[in-house]
């Protein structure tokens, strides 16, 4: 274990959490494939801990055809049943059905904006929101606005707390604490 000072939420946690914090969380993402994967994973995380999702991430990748949106938008009842029987992922039928629904809407957003990246980063004029407060939030004005728009488009499991977490994960919101070496 190194002696780097990290955000308090990851201090003393498992290696998988440290790797996520050090190499992904808060880093700006513009690649639609990664943006899609993270959105699906964040929606599955609703009501659960992120470590649960991280530990199942590779299983999700296998079960969800490496998050190939073209395949996911065509999932049928047989595929839903297959996913429901997969003990290596979160087996919540509503979340599974939402993931397929959200894939279709993600695709519509790509068509409308040229990419999902253009859409999601457009809410901040392509700027990273660097939180400088010590009382870090779980939702914000930005996550509220995005949530409202995604729900209007028909997405499910996209509450403001989930979207705020998503925005942190993809680097639109940089919430590394001031004492963290990544600040």
Largest sheet: 2 strands, parallel
What percentage of residues falls in helices of 4 or more residues?
Answer: 40-55%
- Overall structural class, as computed from helix and strand content, comes to mainly alpha
Task: Assign an overall shape.
Answer: globular
Terminal CA distance = 20 Å
Q: What's the arrangement of strands in the largest beta sheet?
A: 1-2
**Count of alpha/pi helices:** 9
Q: Average pLDDT across residues?
A: 94
Number of strands: 2
What string, H for helix and E for strand, traces the elements in order?
A: HHHHHHHEHHE
User: Strand portion, in percent?
Assistant: under 5%
Cα Rg: 16 Å
How does this model look, in words?
With 183 residues, this protein is mostly helical. Helix content is 55%, strand content 2%. The two termini are 20 Å apart. It has a two-stranded parallel sheet with strand order 1-2. It contains 9 helices and 2 strands. The longest helix has 21 residues, at 93-113. It has helices spanning 15-23, 32-45, 50-63, 69-72, 77-84, 93-113, 116-122, 141-153, 160-169, and strands at 129-130, 173-174.
């Amino acid at each position: 274990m190194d002696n780097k000072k990290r955000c308090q939420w990851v201090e003393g946690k498992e290696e998988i959490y440290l790797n996520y914090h050090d190499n992904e969380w808060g880093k700006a993402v513009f690649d639609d494939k990664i943006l899609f994967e993270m959105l699906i994973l964040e929606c599955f995380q609703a009501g659960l801990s992120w470590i649960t999702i991280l530990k199942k991430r590779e299983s999700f990748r296998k079960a969800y055809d490496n998050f190939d949106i073209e395949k996911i938008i065509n999932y049928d009842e047989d595929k839903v049943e297959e996913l429901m029987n997969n003990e290596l992922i979160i087996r919540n039928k509503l979340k599974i059905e939402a993931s397929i629904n959200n894939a279709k809407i993600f695709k519509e957003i790509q068509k409308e904006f040229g990419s999902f990246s253009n859409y999601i980063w457009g809410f901040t004029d392509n700027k990273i929101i660097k939180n400088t407060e010590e009382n870090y939030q779980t939702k914000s004005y930005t996550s509220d606005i995005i949530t409202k728009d995604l729900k209007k488009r028909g997405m499910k499991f996209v509450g403001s707390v989930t979207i705020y977490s998503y925005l942190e994960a993809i680097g639109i919101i940089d919430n590394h604490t001031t004492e963290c070496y990544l600040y």
